[in-house]
Specification:
Structural class: mainly alpha
Helix content: over 70%
Shape: elongated
Oligomer: single chain
Order of helices and strands: HH
Low-confidence stretches: none
Largest sheet: none
Number of strands: 0
């Protein structure tokens, strides 16, 4: 009997697109999302530096 997680992984791989142009689009989307995440993180850190507690 196979592990249910193994079956889920096999199913996901079977459904995944193998079109190389599709893979480039996915990579570009991932890179864009990562860049946005970094910018948001930097903005949050910058806001934290500007806030000073006076308690």
């Amino acid at each position: 009997m196979s592990d249910p997680k193994d079956q889920e992984q096999q199913d996901a791989l079977a459904k995944a697109s193998t079109d190389r142009r599709d893979q480039g689009d996915i990579a570009a989307d991932d890179a864009g999302a990562t860049a946005i995440g970094h910018r948001v993180q930097e903005a949050l850190e910058q806001d934290d530096d500007e806030v000073h507690c006076t308690d």
